[in-house]
Amino acid sequence: MKTIKISLILSVVLLTVFNNLKAQTNLIHNVLNRKNISLNGTWQYIIDPYETGFYDYRREERKENDREAYWNTEKFDNKTDKKEFGFTDKYSIKVPGDWNSQADKFLYYEGSVWYKRTFDIDLSKTNERIFLHFGAVNYQADVYLNGKKLGVHKGGFTAFNYEIPVSILKAKENLLVVKVDNKRALDEIPTINTDWWNYGGITRDVNLVFVPQTFVQTYSISLAKGSHVAKSKTIEGWIKLNQKANENVTLEIPELKIKQVLKIDGDSIAFSVKTSAVQLWSTKSPKLYQVNISTNAEKITDKIGFRNVEVLDGKLMLNGKQIFLRGISVHEEIPNEIRRAYSAKDAQHLLGQAKELNANMVRLAHYPHNEHMTRAADSLGLFVWSEIPVYWTIDFSSNEVLAKAKTQLEEMISRDRNRASIIIWSVGNETPVTEARTLFMSKLVAKTKELDQSRIVAAALESFGIQGVQTVEDPLGAFTDIVAVNQYIGWYGGLPDNSRKVSWATKYNKPLFFSETGAEGFSGLRADSLTRFSEEFQEWYYKEQVGMFKRMPANFAGLSPWILNDFRSPRRNHPTLQEGWNNKGLFDHDGKKKLAFYVLKAYYDEMEKKFDK
Ligand code: GCB
């Protein structure tokens, strides 16, 4: 215990973080490692395109006890009852999972589906609070338990939870009904226009989470900024309870021989601990430490990596050393099963493909992926770019839309703030340059920085030029920490060798990063390289791009080409070469590598030698 010295609420920065705790969601952090009961499995469903279970024939929202409301479905028992709906095993569906992949009739469905299951519960442990936690539901979830509404959540890619009042719980056959609606809308995030499949459903894990009356809601534990250069490192952060209390919380990192008892008088506490022996997290050596947080009533464990990421003199640095991001963009989808990815196994598969490419980074596009992904990235040693789906033309003039974006941002950061792999929070993708948009986006950047000072903030900007000097001047670049640009020279303009006529500059003294570049290659279509959509064209595209990467200015910090796998998109309607697929993957629908894969891999091998000696 020689190294430990604790000082409470030391710096102004810490105080700022501390104050911002109030602004956070009520999300319970690290549910995977809490006491929980999984509600995954087979649920029953009713497809309800006219929302009959929710509105009456005058389109009035049904009252809570309306017998025809679908959340009250179990109440029919007389043979004289007029019964026009009901749940049955004949219509059953797997949770987690999108509905689109589970029956043909769902493939293009966008609308409401009611999900139902029951559960029993041991009510003898009345000292515990019980929360119903959803990893994600796309897009809107109206949640009912035993006929009572627990809440409504919007946002298809972030977690949320509701406390279940003990008064409504029964020992047997608790009736859980969720109305899921994935209709797209102009004032939602994303809006109606995207280049990915709008998979609907309860797409991620559902759990009952059991916690004591006073419990640790969330926490932040990380290496203090700049501490990587100090001989004795500082681990700092805060712990937040669900409510005010006088409570002793013990923070332990056994491997570092850290054990501190923190006295909370209020609802949270900041801490700062000195230690000398920390092995810093990196992609080459993704060291994670077991961290225990305990009170009299509970013990939570987590695995956390400690590292320092920053931008210094226009360069991207990890632990004081310049890094180059050998990235690849990834959708949360398993192409050969045409479904959303959701499990730990899926995460291993997708990130395993990225590793095969010798990538050291994944851009999790265009929305926060499930928690298994970011946890797997932590342990596999992959940097992560995590993004909210502020995509293309959101309604930038609307304060309500801004509020929705901020909520998704908060929920993303709140779930994943302790993942060392995440080095970049992105506030959006390819938003059109207007004054309203830049104001909107700059507010999101500011919000991100308010919630988390330890990472880099980005947004994927655009560049359309196909010759000459491309100077990135988007005013949003003044707010972000790196200048990230999507460019498709030779696919959406000109031919791949146009990239020979292009050079790059930015008016900002910041790292320059290609957040996308890519071309379609229809797997198995073999032709000369001038034939668009052939594997040879895509291969040529990548060869020319690599030539350009090698001529980039010194602030070139890496790239994240588009994309790891072919993916489903309703926008892609070529009758033979697309049929609802965007074929820019380096792996095809069946997981087979295309020619272009090898071009990028060779470049990444070279860059690894250069930067990761
Ligand atoms: C982009 C978008 C991405 C699309 C991609 C494409 O710039 O950011 O979501 O899928 O281009 O294939 O056109």
Structure, described:
- β20 and β21 form a beta hairpin.
- The radius of gyration is 25 Å and the shape is globular.
- The protein is built from 7 helices and 32 strands.
- With 613 residues, the chain is an alpha/beta fold.
- It has 3 domains: 5-10 and 213-307, Immunoglobulins (Immunoglobulin-like); 41-95 and 97-203, Jelly Rolls (Sandwich), CATH 2.60.120.260; 311-541 and 553-596, TIM Barrel (Alpha-Beta Barrel).
- The strands form 8 sheets. Strands 19-22-23-24-25-27-29-30 form an 8-stranded parallel β-barrel, surrounded by 5 helices.
- Mean pLDDT is 94; it is low at 1-23.
- It has helices at residues 12-20, 344-356, 371-380, 399-416, 435-451, 535-549, 595-611; strands at 36-38, 41-47, 92-95, 112-119, 129-134, 140-145, 148-154, 160-163, 174-181, 206-211, 216-223, 233-253, 258-275, 289-294, 299-304, 309-312, 315-318, 321-322, 325-330, 333-334, 339-340, 361-364, 383-387, 422-429, 456-462, 468-472, 483-486, 502-506, 512-516, 556-559, 567-568, 581-582.
